[in-house]
């Protein structure tokens, strides 16, 4: 199956939106890992999920190739 162009808009169904978020989040983390290994660079990735009924502030996900505190201090 070939790639097809998707319409970029908010996904209305909560379950579908969460599943899409999880898949894309893992894809971003994988790309960040590859970038840090292949190019020998320091990478920090911070993702804030949308607020939900169970978590009013939203979930925080992070990836860092080194200590994230040191990388953020550099920034």
TrEMBL record:
Gene Ontology cellular component annotations, sorted alphabetically: nucleus
InterPro entries: TF_MADSbox, TF_MADSbox_sf
Domain of life assignment: Eukaryota
Oxidoreductase keyword on record: no
A Pfam match: SRF-TF
Keywords: DNA-binding, Nucleus, Transcription, Transcription regulation
Chain ranges of the MADS-box domain: 1-49
Main location: nucleus
Annotated compartments: Nucleus
Gene Ontology biological-process annotations: positive regulation of transcription by RNA polymerase II
GO MF: DNA-binding transcription factor activity, RNA polymerase II-specific; protein dimerization activity; RNA polymerase II cis-regulatory region sequence-specific DNA binding
SUPFAM superfamilies: SRF-like
PANTHER family in alphabetical order: MADS BOX PROTEIN (PTHR11945), MYOCYTE-SPECIFIC ENHANCER FACTOR 2 (PTHR11945:SF534)
Protein name: MADS-box domain-containing protein
């Amino acid at each position: 199956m070939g790639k097809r162009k998707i319409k970029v808009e908010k996904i209305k169904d909560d379950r579908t939106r969460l599943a899409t978020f999880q898949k894309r989040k893992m894809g971003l983390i994988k790309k960040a890992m590859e970038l840090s290994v292949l190019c020998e660079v320091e990478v920090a990735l911070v993702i804030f999920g949308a607020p939900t009924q169970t978590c009013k502030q939203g979930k925080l996900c992070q990836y860092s190739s080194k200590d994230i505190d040191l990388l953020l201090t550099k920034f």
